[in-house]
Amino acid sequence: MDLSIILPVLNERANLAELLPRIDALMRRMHLGFEVLVIDGGSRDGTQELARERGARVIPERRPGYAGALETGFAAAAGDYVLTLDADLSHEPDFVAKLWRAREQADIIIASRYTRGGMAYAPLTRRLLSRALNFYMRRLLSMPVRDMSSGFRLYRRSALEGLKLEARNFEVLEEILVKAYARGYRVHEVPFTYFPRESGRSHARLTRFGWDLTRAGFRLWALRNSINSADYDDRAFYSLIPVQRYWQRRRHRITTAWARGAARILDAGCGSSMIIQSLNNAIGMDINADKLRFLRRAGIPLLRASAFALPFRDGVFDCVISSQVIEHIPYDELLFRELWRVLEPGGRLIIGTPDYATLGWRMIEPVYGFLMPGGYRDEHITHYTRRSLTEVLERHGFVHEETAYVAGSELIMRCRKPLDAAAAAPAATSGEPRPAARAG
């Protein structure tokens, strides 16, 4: 089935009598396999009976409220794409054709009143408050979307799978967008002209919506600023916080300068950082599928895999980058043997981690953890120093070439695999006790 159409309703018999035939005619013109799911919130005006007569499937909402209606519809939808729109004819059904044509541009397509070319014909006070709330949420959550409260949307079904919705009412629209975007899904807006409902009474209360949205905003802010957000590393590079911005750019400059000229680069544990986005001839690899999904828009070759089992032949890269990775995983000799194995003789290893021997990092990390409780501080489980990391690398056959620091606290080392790699190859042992690096 191509498309599932979800219509949340409450006493919308008169509007459905006009809307459902128009949807049916449009779908037939577009030659789409479709279903119409009418999610009913307890109508008493014959809405359910009319919907069934017109071929729609009527489903009682799981829990009261607009969020419960959408949640019910998402769970029941069978189409590859899911369309949501209001049943009051404020969302022109013929506009669905434009949304459908735009479906390859992103995973969520929004009929937008506030992007360039869009328009909203509504009472002035309602229009102003709606714009103010959208501006507030866009800035608070750093979302590249101008109309976050539009309920007229086309979703790729995969973008909705696994979403756990906490909202009760119309603030669910922002929650869906933020949570999907935080998982790396793309959003695109198509200009749309909005007209008020044809008949009946609106069930939206803008002041109540504003209050619900404000409360939801703080919860979603925590998600957007946590490492669980797929674009966390990308956003940090452009941060408005001077220290964070400097830190990211200093790391970027050192790493990319050392990697210049390499013909075959592996960024193992690339996340969504600007390093992988700036490199030429590079493959990005990470265990986190959300971050890789975010990077798709950059056109980079990407692979989901573990650093403990790199899915490459021996000696296939002339440069391997491991930036801010090793402190996030338990110490294991296998990790360093894998980095050695995929490097060709004479190839470079660029590896970075906080240096826990420095006073600067011991002061920075507690402050960072306090200011950004969802950030990377809680993920640092193995603590390295310059001395301990050097010992590990030399024991595995690497030759140290250069060391650099970010703010005297973050260690970045460049090493080389000797041309006579066979003579310097590390012993194929496992379970060796970990050296001076300690668990944190």
Q: What does this protein look like?
A:
The chain is α/β, with parallel strands linked by helices and 440 residues long. It folds into two domains: 3-224, Alpha-Beta Complex (Spore Coat Polysaccharide Biosynthesis Protein SpsA, Chain A), CATH 3.90.550; 232-439, 3-Layer(aba) Sandwich (Rossmann fold), CATH 3.40.50.150. It is 38% helix and 20% strand. The chain has 16 helices and 18 strands. The protein has helices at 13-30, 47-53, 66-76, 96-101, 124-141, 157-160, 172-182, 206-224, 232-237, 242-259, 274-278, 289-295, 333-342, 359-371, 386-395, 421-424, and strands spanning 3-9, 34-40, 57-60, 81-84, 108-112, 119-120, 153-156, 187-191, 193-194, 265-268, 282-286, 302-304, 317-323, 343-354, 382-383, 399-406, 410-416, 438-439. Strands 3-2-1-4-7-5-8 form a seven-stranded mixed sheet, sandwiched between helices. Helix 1 (13-30) packs parallel to helix 2, helix 5 (124-141) runs parallel beside helix 8 (206-224) and helix 7 (172-182) packs parallel to helix 8. The longest helix has 19 residues, at 206-224. It is elongated and about 80 Å long.
Q: For this structure, what is the CATH homologous superfamily of the largest domain?
A: Spore Coat Polysaccharide Biosynthesis Protein SpsA, Chain A
Gyration radius over CA: 26 Å
Overall tally of domains: 2
Assign the CATH architecture of the largest domain: Alpha-Beta Complex
What is the overall silhouette? elongated
Determine and state the CATH class of the largest domain.
Alpha Beta
Query: What number is the mean pLDDT?
Result: 90
Q: Fill in the CATH topology of the largest domain.
A: Spore Coat Polysaccharide Biosynthesis Protein SpsA, Chain A
Largest sheet features? 7 strands, mixed
How far apart lie the N and C ends?
51 Å
> How many helical stretches?
16
